[in-house]
Design goal:
- By secondary structure, this protein is of the alpha/beta class.
- It has two domains: 88 residues, Roll (Urease, subunit C, domain 1); 84 residues, no CATH class.
- Helix content is 29%, strand content 26%.
- It has seven helices and eleven strands.
- The longest helix has 16 residues.
């Protein structure tokens, strides 16, 4: 089934998803006229190609992402350094669960691709299971490992025939996205599926 995704602040950059790929990209008015039977998903803010997070190994293999049941003991933020590595050491199921929680955090920040050489099966399985693309690292990394690195790394422009992989941020324009960062994400779409939606 065809789905038109349009965001309030970028009606000129709407997309038509046909399963896992984009059938068309253009203004909302044109796409609705060309695809009158497509269902429409309206979003607040700005629709973009989605983000590349350049810190795959640091966030998925060198940090422990606590289970909500561990919040009283470990908090809710990733645990880095020796303590994080100790929590991951010697426990394949803990590594896998932590990597899946880390990927969920990435999706909640508009990430649709991950960079850096992932060496562990747990992180690779979590990334592949979510449908995230693997990419090369940018030449210069934008600072410490973060789910919302500064500056944000946007993927190339959306185009017909490409994978339906994009994100929507509740901001009025690109300047606000740069200022507010990836925490403004309201939806992430990978392979035509909404894999994250802010409640």
């Amino acid at each position: 089934m065809l789905t038109i995704h349009v965001a309030e602040a970028s009606p000129e950059s709407a997309v038509v998803a046909d399963g896992a790929h984009l059938a068309a990209v253009g203004s909302y008015e044109e796409l609705v006229a060309d695809h009158p039977r497509a269902r429409v998903r309206r979003w607040p803010g700005l629709l973009t190609p989605g983000l590349l997070n350049p810190y795959g190994p640091e966030l998925l293999e060198q940090a422990y992402h606590p289970d909500p049941r561990e919040a009283d003991r470990l908090g809710t933020e990733p645990v880095f350094g020796e303590r994080g590595l100790a929590l991951l050491a010697g426990n394949p199921s803990a590594r896998g669960a932590s990597a899946r929680r880390g990927v969920q955090r990435m999706l909640a920040h508009g990430t649709v691709a991950v960079a850096g050489e992932l060496r562990g099966r747990a992180a690779l399985d979590a990334v592949r299971g979510a449908g995230l693309a693997l990419a090369g690292r940018p030449a210069g990394l934008p600072g410490p490992a973060s789910f919302s690195p500064v500056p944000l790394v946007l993927l190339p422009a959306l185009a017909p025939g490409n994978p339906a992989r994009f994100a929507v941020f509740d901001v009025p324009d690109r300047a606000a996205l740069v200022r507010d960062g990836a925490s403004a994400c309201v939806a992430t779409v990978v392979a035509g599926r909404i894999v994250y939606r802010r409640r």
